[in-house]
Amino acid sequence: MSTSTAAGRKPGTGAAKQPAAASGGGTSPGRGKSVLGGSKYSQKQLWFGALAWVIAIVFVLPYVEMAITALRPKDELTSDGYVPSKFEWANFVDVWDKSTLGDNLKVSLLVAGMSTLLVLVVSLPAAYYTARKRFRGRGVFLLLVLVTQMFQPTSLLVGLYREFYILDLLDSYWALVLVNGAFNLAFSVWILTAYFSAIPVELEEAAMIDGASRLGALRRVTLPLAMPGIVTAVIFTFIAAWNEFTVALVLVTTPDKQPLTVGINSFLGAYRVEWQYLFAGSVVAIVPVVILFAYIEKHVVSGLTAGSVK
Amino acid sequence: MKRHQMALAATGLSAALLLSACGGSDDKKDDGDKAAPGASGAAGAPKDGTIKLVVADYGSGDGSMQKYWNGVISSFNEKNPGIKVNLQVINWDDIDKQVATMIQNNDMPDLLQTGGYADKVVDDLLYPVDDVMSPATKADFVDSFTPAATVKGKQYGIPFTSSTRQLIYNTDLFTKAGITDPPKTWDELKAAATKLKAAGVATPFGLPLGKEEAQGEFMNWALGNGGGYQTNGKYTVNSAQNVEALNWVNDNLVKGGLTESNPGTKNRKDVYTDFYGGSVGMVNSNPTMIATLKKDYPNLKYATAPIPGKAGPLNETLGVCDWMMAFKKNGHKDQIKAFLDHAFSTDQQIKFQEQYSFPPVTKSVMAKMTTNPANAGLKPYIDLLPKAKFYPLNDVAWDVLSPKIKEQLGSAVSGKSPKDVLDQLQKEAEAAVAQQKS
Amino acid sequence: MAETAVRRAPTVVTRVKKALAPLPWIGPAVLLIGVVVLWPVVVMVWSSFQRIRRTGIVVGSNGTDNYKKLFDEPDFVAVLWNTVVWVLVVVAITLVLSLFLAQLFNQHFPGRRFARWAMIVPWAASVFMTAVVFKWMLHETHGAINTLMVDLHLMDAGKDWLGRPSTAMPWMMAVAVFVSLPFTTYTLLAGLQTVPGEVYEAAKIDGASTWRTYLSITLPLLKPAILVAVVINLINVFNSFPIIWAMTNGGPGYETATTTVFMYQLKASDIGESAAMSVANFAMIIILVAFFLVVSRNKETDR
Questions:
Q1: Is the pTM of the predicted complex or chain greater than 0.90?
Q2: How high is the ipTM of this complex?
Q3: Measured between CB atoms, which of C55, C140, C271 is closest to B120?
Q4: Residue B432 belongs to a domain with what CATH number?
Q5: DSSP string, B201-247
Q6: Closest Cβ–Cβ partner in A75, A77, A266 for B57
Q7: Domain range for residue B280?
Q8: Are strands B83-91 and B49-57 parallel, antiparallel or unpaired?
Q9: What are B110-149's pLDDT values in tens digits?
Q10: Domains of chain A (ranges plus CATH)?
Q11: Residues 6+ apart with CB under 8 A from C301
């Protein structure tokens, strides 16, 4: 975030920092500046920071254990030491050779990416319209959307199989893109409707008076202001699609066409579990999502700042 | 206002109804061959076309099952280039539910390899073996499978993999506890377990009565007391012998703290993992353990022995068999026959059985494997095969009862009375029989 | 005559136009939902009234017998009760902890960005694998959690936490909370971003205490985000299948099963009954969400 936001910020806004932070609200636009100058943290903030860091570490610990187990030599899998006598780095290499992990990773990226795109393309206009217009059937539409979120895809497998059998999309990515898109639409529509509703129409109108077209006003004013919502929707959809398991298991049966979740599952054999590979694959699966998040989080911040400047 | 809202909702709904209504009568892909549109699969067609082969994956992530079958298919295609085989490999844990979904949607496989076939016979979905296999291939199967493979005098099940059970024990731990001979009776087993416990072994006897395989572990004990699931073709799950066996296990092993904690919730896989880790003294083993020990845990010292019974070691142990079956729906009889004769040839079979360390299902493979010294560890399991006792695999009610046993049996060692649990299961068995008759 | 006709025609046209106006905007969403979601729903409801053989062959109508059989299952009531406790406890704890975490991670502290990345990890990982690794860590003899508790002298020996319902349920709930926290916190965090800083300045000038500012300003402004978070959590936690499936399989017996797990188990013995359980599940979640929405709306009008 830092440089661009700090540069783009008007001098006056920095003053808002102190009261906001002290009152616990802390959305202060001033944080860009403080990152540049490390000494600006108050005692209280440092304490909060320490607590937050402890919690953050707790969040990561189970996955550290996952990684440690993935690095254990076979005969130390069930030893009770916290770390093995030596780390078997070869496990992380072997897991690629022993399975179709590489292909599965590509499928997961493709499916999660396309699903997210589909959700955005479909939900942005729907949410915008729903937020701005009191059209007939609005309530029914929002209810319909909410109801879709309630179904457990596991209970719909028979119907989903029939559907994609008839559409001739079994064993194809498109089935997964459609399913993930449809089942995750609800959250996006709802959260984006909430965000669009919160943005005053006057802002758009003002931009249009300034000579922007309606689309231009949308792009320059509304979308940036709704960016936190869009980012939340993107992350929600991407992660849900990334981790979807049951539907993919039934609809896609060719090993190298399966997403990562299903691919990793095959390390759980009928008679034995190859724990080190199971966990190695799982650690690998977490990385792309965290990268996406790191990348996108930067954008939400700049989106916000852009909004507040306006 | 209301009307408009209704109209909007109805649009989506009626579209869905319309589509699913089409689905009900949809037969467009009857032949299941997207890849070979020219091949019409009517019965009596020449040996061309596509057959759909669905198999279970017992393996462990390395795709070896896929590789094995691809090997079978490519060698088959060298001889029969006109028949395309579409392979689907499905995790063993999901295959039954998934195949039910396929059948419910009228998308039937031509060949299926999984755990049970009897339900499909009752619904008249299968070819009898005689229709899809040459007499020579059929005659090669080990005879003890035939009763379990036969329904009302006709054989439908084609044995594909089998396994028997042996007691496996960690000899280092036995030495440490001062035990020289493996136990032969329940009392000796209890005494050995007590010594192991005194020697500090975390789990003297591994007892996986959790969901994964409770029906198998329990049968080991029932057989040890002259019990079993059926007597003269009728379910006797709560027979006196069965209740006594389960009571003995619960009172002596479980309450005595000689098993892992809460064995009613422990799965076989996890107990095996602990055995490999050296914290389990003995456990009733599946032959795949031998291959895993040889390959991944060469330092662990172990030996096997017959499973102890109440009065002496079992000479008839539990046998488990998974089957291949051929579906009639698509009429690919000739293609199926050609493929099965190839897949069950000695060359193809031996590759599979040796790779996965399963006892063979055909006599010729058995002869080859038992003479090969590399299979010495497997030999005791193979030797048990001719006398193996199977689940009531040819009874369709078993397919309903088996998951219920897996789910409920663990309660008998988790606080509920063994008799109550077996009584409830007997009720489930009778309900399943009644339901399948109606 | 001509005049009235002329006058009437445009009204019909405009009415149709008006009714169709939302279509370009919401049409794709309706289409996607209609085709991909509602179609299998229709199949599910239909299946619940059919007699389906174990093979999957549909024999014919079964009336309401699947439902009768389901409600007569000896374990049905206990499973239902498990489900209610599971949903309420997990969602409530998740919400309270998330409100706290959202405030904390919204503070300005060194390395906040990295701490936020760390927070997303449990969400990024598949729920199933998280449950598997917790099961691994809870193993009686070699699980890291047991080892740690023994080393800290909290216990003398490792415990088989997942072997008994009385300890398995709390642990599984803890895992359910753990995997729900990142999403919930992040949603609330996004909600906090929309609270304008001036509001706090005004409160500051009024001399309100931090706690009062939070209760009277932040919380009400967070309401839309809380609403979304709770509804989504209610649904996800109710439908949550992988945690219980990976950690206890619902056992011993069905003592740690929820209705979602039960539905999956029934599929192995009776597909029609399983479909009936699915429909009942859907009815329950609708009631749950509707109840929550009505309650939250009433509160709003009270204010």
A1: no
A2: 0.86
A3: C55
A4: 3.40.190.10
A5: -SEEEE---STTTHHHHHHHHHHHTT--SEETTEE-TT-HHHHHHHH
A6: A266
A7: 166-316+395-437
A8: parallel
A9: 999 998 898 899 899 999 999 999 999 999 998 888 888 9
A10: 100-266 (1.10.3720.10)
A11: none
